[in-house]
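Example for tutorial group B:
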């Protein structure tokens, strides 16, 4: 669907060159929700904007459905962009126009008739759950409602590709979940290929099927979302995942604990095995769970437990080896 080949983007700022994107190759498949994650300044927004040529690449080529659009201009470029919707971080609504007119705007630009627009806008408002806001102005809407209008506007011309530029970073947690659920539903029901960028791993793991991790303008890791979280390969990815899955025990609590504090990370089939109860039974020991959680990414489990184990040093080492043999990642945090 989208193929980026050797994409580089260089800016000139105060007489010096800054390479925002460096030699990026990506192939994004039809119908997937593809995530691009990175810290501020990693180049993810710049890369996203090369897909619809809002940002012209300094080097490389952009292919949409097998066609190289890198050199497209004017009419040819406008036609391509009609097939690519975009959702913005800060909504980018026209504040002097009603919800109806904001959604109708891209359809008017593309030459749709009044009749077609009049039929399409209520349909879109129903899709995003804002049928009662058709005549409201953006100033009367909450942040989540504004983003829903932005989504309706982005899919008004029935695009095949939807670009999402930090679509939830201006929203609270509850609203973020509802917007991500809506994006996922649009992907599933309308078959739109979604490309979403974020600096938040919680957003990425909620909706994305594959993920590219960016750092200093480069893609440092590219894998299915589950593999990114279950077995991150690059140090940058490991840091991101660590922040997302991290469980902390207060230092004053750790000081009171006798014996080692162990963190266990489990995924895949290992998450379904009764490893802790087996360890208690086999080694005749006590295991105390201090903290833990389990999450499902792309329908598959990843979990973390922080435990204490009673016993002699040799017995504890045997238990740690037992966990490792059962394909659990084990780390001694304390003691």
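The residue assignment follows.
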């Amino acid at each position: 669907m989208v193929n980026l080949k050797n994409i580089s983007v260089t800016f000139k700022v105060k007489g010096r060159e800054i390479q925002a994107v460096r030699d990026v190759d990506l192939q994004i498949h039809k119908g997937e929700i593809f995530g691009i994650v990175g810290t501020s300044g990693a180049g993810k927004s710049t890369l996203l904007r090369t897909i619809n040529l809002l940002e012209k690449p300094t080097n490389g080529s952009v292919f949409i459905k097998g066609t190289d659009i890198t050199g497209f201009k004017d009419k040819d470029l406008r036609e391509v962009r009609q097939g690519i919707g975009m959702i913005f971080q800060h909504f980018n609504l026209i504040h002097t126009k009603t919800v109806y007119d904001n959604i109708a705007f891209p359809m008017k630009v593309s030459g749709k008739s009044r009749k077609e627009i009049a039929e399409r806008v209520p349909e879109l408002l129903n899709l995003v759950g804002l049928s009662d806001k058709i005549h409201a102005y953006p100033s009367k809407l909450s942040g989540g409602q504004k983003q829903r209008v932005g989504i309706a506007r982005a899919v008004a011309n029935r695009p095949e590709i939807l670009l999402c530029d930090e679509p939830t970073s201006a929203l609270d947690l509850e609203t973020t979940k509802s917007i991500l659920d809506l994006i996922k539903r649009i992907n599933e029901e309308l078959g739109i290929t979604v490309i979403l960028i974020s600096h938040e791993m919680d957003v990425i793991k909620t909706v994305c099927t594959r993920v590219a991790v960016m750092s200093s303008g480069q893609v440092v890791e590219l894998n299915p979302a589950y593999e990114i979280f279950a077995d991150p390969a690059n140090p940058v990815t490991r840091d991101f995942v660590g922040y997302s899955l991290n469980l902390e025990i207060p230092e004053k609590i750790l000081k009171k604990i006798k014996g080692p504090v162990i963190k266990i990370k489990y995924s895949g089939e290992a998450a379904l095995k009764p490893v802790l109860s087996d360890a208690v039974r086999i080694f005749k020991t006590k295991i105390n769970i201090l903290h833990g959680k389990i999450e499902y990414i792309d329908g598959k489990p990843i979990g973390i437990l922080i435990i204490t184990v009673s016993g002699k040093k040799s017995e504890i080492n045997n238990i740690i080896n037992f966990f490792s043999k059962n394909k659990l990642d084990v780390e001694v945090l304390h003691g």
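The two ends are 52 Å apart (CA to CA). Compare this with the pattern of hydrophobic and polar residues in the output above.
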